[in-house]
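From the methods appendix. Each design record in this collection lists the tokenized structure first, followed by the designed amino acid sequence. Records were kept in a plain field format so they could be parsed without special tools. The example shown here is representative of the layout used throughout.

RECORD:
FOLD TOKENS (365 positions):
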């Protein structure tokens, strides 16, 4: 059993949340460049160092990593390829936790290095735009640190109700009306007079499929009929609510979806499952699919909401967030993300304005 060790560094440059692994970086460089010398040049290391490290890792792991054939392009062994893909899959599945860990460390250091920085704790469904907002908000012009803890939409609102955060990010199918699963899921969690909604974005969700959509999947009925392997999301996530809503609208039984019971913890993990061939299709957002070179078939438009405690609207950190959300530079950045568009960003909204099934009045007998 090989043990895993972690470390982190402090720096001023923003970078994607990830756990770096020197061996995986070596293998990826060899796979991309087809030679030890090409890998060394890409990594800005000497040929001797790269060659020596690969040999050392082969001895440590007890398996060959590179097919060493004189006069032939260097290529990974089957073990080396499996090792690289296993690490990619793990990183994709753990992305929300990795980002949450980094956010927790950054939150702690933000308060130490600059007491003018506002810290705002948020529980939210994982979202590419939120990650971009987090980077945008920490710029010197805003001095806002979003301490985002990623969880499912349902769990995020529960955290808000339990006093564990000031904001909850969740998403709902646009236009879902009375009697919908969306209503039955979220209405019991949202409290009149206690919550307000802050406008954030609209985004596209759909089928994440292999490049070129080789199986010709365009609807959930296609997924059901074809018997293709589906990567689902867990109960408590907004995407699981969306899937069940869309299945009900299409008259497709969940048990007819092969792999309905197989769940992945994030959009990134669903996309990685499709990219690795572990699944043929999954439901997720466009930005995640395209970032991994996959194809995307849009099925629905959602509104991504930020639920806020009404009592927190006048707090300095919340006011700083509203300023960021109304910033034209942020609007341009959000609009550049595939599948996203601005929707009343930074506006404080009542639930009745945004959620068409909401009514404070009791029905007449």
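DESIGN:
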């Amino acid at each position: 059993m090989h043990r895993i060790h972690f470390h982190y560094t402090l720096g001023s440059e923003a970078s994607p949340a990830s756990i770096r692994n020197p061996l995986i970086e070596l293998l990826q460089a060899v796979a991309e460049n087809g030679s030890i010398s090409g890998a060394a040049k890409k990594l800005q290391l000497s040929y001797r160092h790269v060659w020596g490290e690969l040999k050392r890792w082969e001895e440590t792991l007890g398996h060959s990593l590179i097919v060493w054939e004189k006069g032939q392009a260097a290529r990974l062994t089957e073990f080396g390829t499996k090792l690289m893909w296993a690490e990619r899959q793990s990183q994709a599945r753990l992305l929300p936790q990795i980002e949450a860990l980094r956010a927790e460390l950054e939150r702690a250091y933000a308060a130490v290095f600059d007491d003018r920085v506002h810290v705002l704790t948020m529980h939210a469904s994982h979202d590419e735009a939120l990650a971009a907002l987090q980077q945008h908000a920490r710029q010197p012009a805003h001095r806002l640190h979003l301490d985002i803890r990623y969880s499912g939409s349902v769990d995020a609102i529960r955290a808000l109700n339990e006093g564990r955060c000031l904001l909850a990010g969740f998403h709902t199918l646009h236009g879902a009306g009375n009697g919908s699963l969306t209503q039955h899921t979220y209405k019991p969690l949202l409290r009149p007079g206690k919550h307000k909604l802050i406008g954030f974005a609209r985004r596209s969700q759909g089928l994440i499929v292999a490049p070129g959509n080789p199986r010709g999947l365009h609807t959930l009925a296609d997924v059901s009929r074809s018997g293709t392997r589906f990567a689902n999301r867990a109960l408590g996530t907004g995407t699981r609510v969306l899937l069940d809503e869309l299945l009900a609208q299409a008259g497709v039984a969940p048990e007819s979806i092969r792999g309905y019971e197989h769940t992945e913890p994030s959009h990134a993990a669903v996309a990685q499952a499709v990219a690795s061939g572990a699944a043929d299709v999954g439901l997720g957002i466009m930005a995640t699919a395209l970032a991994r070179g996959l194809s995307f078939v849009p099925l629905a438009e959602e509104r991504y909401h930020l639920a806020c405690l009404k009592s927190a609207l006048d707090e300095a950190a919340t006011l700083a967030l509203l300023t960021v959300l109304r910033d034209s530079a942020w609007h341009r950045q959000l609009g550049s993300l595939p599948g996203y568009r601005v929707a009343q960003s930074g506006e404080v909204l009542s639930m009745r304005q945004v959620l068409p099934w909401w009514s404070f009045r009791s029905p007449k007998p």
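APPENDIX NOTE: Residues 22-76 form a domain with the Arc Repressor Mutant, subunit A fold (CATH 1.10.10.10).
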